[in-house]
Hints:
This protein is of the alpha+beta class and 184 residues long. It has one domain (26-170). It is built from three helices and eight strands. The chain has helices at residues 2-22, 35-39, 48-54; strands spanning 42-46, 65-70, 92-98, 102-111, 114-120, 131-139, 148-152, 161-165. It has an eight-stranded antiparallel beta barrel. Mean pLDDT is 76; it is low at 13-22 and 175-184.
Amino acid sequence: MIVRNAVLACAALAAVGSTAVLVQELRLQRDAENQVAARIAGSWTLDGGLTRRLDGEARQGVPSKIKFEENENMLAKLKAPQPRFASKQIFSAGIVTIDGTKTHPYILTSDHGNMYLVYYNGAEPEVTTSSVVHTIALGFARNARNDVLFLAGDTRETSSLAFVHEGAAPVTSATTPASGPAPK
Length: 184
């Protein structure tokens, strides 16, 4: 009886241990050198001219506004089987609002040298059941207010959408010429 109870206790402990491995606790690991994470917060507006230059074909369902708010507490909502993030650094986490109405938890991570924005669009508590992945990059300006945010899909074949900070002039109407000779 004592041996049987010990075996049952070990089996129960093993079951709990294996469950703990499946449920990953996502943790923010800030990196002061990650400029995308440092400068993504705020409201961004689609730059239609630059987006058309990147992809001449009209696209449906493109957001006109995106707002990022850092909030690492939202990571608690994402405790679920997430093996693809088990070994990935999470540079930023929070809430992304799309077109002023749809809010989603997001994380910034990297894979194969690319920065990725991952936002979750499942309803709570199944918030992790569905995610959207975008390659993300910033064109850095001397003044962060003039940065350009680029969002693409998670494949090379997807062209980028270009966003500027809300209230900033679109890139295509910028009046300050770039230094150096004009391209030929």
